[in-house]
Amino acid sequence: MKLTARIAGAAGISLIAVAALAHGGATGIVMERMDGMSAMAKVMKALAPMMQGTAAYDAATVRSGAAQIADHAGEAMTAKFPEDTSGGASEAKPEIWQDWEDFAGLARQLEVFAEGLEAAADNGVGGMPAQGNMMGNSTMMGGQGMMASGGMMGGQAPMMTAEQLGQMPADMAFAMVSQSCTACHSRFRAEDK
Ligand code: HEC
Predict the structure, then answer these.
(1) Residue-wise pLDDT tens digits, 84-98
(2) Least CB-packed of 66, 70, 96, 154 within 10 Å?
(3) Separation of 35 CA from ligand 1 center, angstroms?
(4) Are 191 and 185 in contact (CB under 8 A)?
(5) 33 lines ligand 1 (CB under 6 A)
(6) How far apart are CA 17 and CA 7, in angstroms?
């Protein structure tokens, strides 16, 4: 146990060193949030082949990866975006602070979805949702559901709960986590500069 922690610690330090070079010279809180984002990207990249069926599925890896993402999301994420810290090496758009509620909502949504993926880890990939009736009687796919309201990521779409995602095949929950990243980036991150 101790040994594992020490190895993990050493790996963490070298990761930070690499990240520091990779973030275009960002410092302080901007570098911290980039590190958090990069850590999540690393998890997504590691899980993607399992979700696509090109690597053996491992529920424990999915669970711990999802938990890591949840740890970086929500308030942990918004705390790293103090007011008006765009510009310079940062790709953060100033709109973050103009539309803070939306930004924080997306950060929170990611947390909920990542918790949902954690709960869905044991379901494995493909096939029907674990409970079999999600499509049938659900409030989320039905008239008032996310599809009907213009897509699940549309600003005011009803937020699904982690429990609801926990009923899904893991690859479906994973896709929702991934869309949660994209939804925020397309609105609040300037990627081409
Ligand atoms: C609530 C909004 C939001 C969510 C959700 C979000 N991001 Fe980001 N992300 C940003 C913003 C804003 C930046 C730009 C930060 C900066 O440059 O200051 C960013 C930057 C990044 C970067 C670049 C980091 C660097 O080194 O410059 C990566 C990679 C990234 N995000 C991955 C992810 C992944 C993967 C997810 C989902 C698991 C995710 N993000 C979810 C807002 C978000």
Answers:
(1) 999 999 999 999 999
(2) 154
(3) 9
(4) yes
(5) yes
(6) 16
